[in-house]
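tool=predict chain=A
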Amino acid sequence: MDMIKDKLKSMYKTSMIFSIILFFIGLFLVIKASTTLHAISYIIGVMLILWGTVQLITSLTNKEKENSNYLSAGFILGVFSLIIGIVVIINPEIIGSIIPFVIGIWMVINGITKLYYSLSLNKIQKSTPAIVISLIILACGIFLIANPFKGAEILTQIIGASIMVYSVLDIVECFTLKKVVKDFTNPKQTNNDIKVIEANYEETK
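tool=predict ok
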């Protein structure tokens, strides 16, 4: 029992520390969504530049050894990666805009498809709720396509809020688990327990 108790204490401490760190990360994502997206873009840009540089150096080295031309697959990929990396660092909104833009296109296609079927069904049976939902999906998709970086900020804030909610729930669960372990290892004596102890004492007299 002591071994289980010690393991639970260790798990409780680790989980608490991890949840507190996650909470502040989530808070940062909610408050500083734009900064987070820029930081992610810079990291990706630097990685692309480094990878492209390595590819170029490798291609040039192989060219000298094998006396091949510069237009190898590695050379082309290196140049392409280097250019993209520089563009991403100069304009960090690009990375933050790609995912919302793709999601926006999918939502527009999905919204138009659902709207078409909803209008078709409406001729047979009234389906106003389905039409309204389709229009909302379509509007959200258009918003993401028109404002992809703003949409990325909103998505980042939603992720941050979700992390915060998880952290709070995990902390509450840790306290609950700690209380359960404490109650189990240090049970309070009820009136019935006291009566049993007194009865056993009388019998031993």
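Residues 194-198 have pLDDT under 50 and may be disordered. The radius of gyration is 30 Å.
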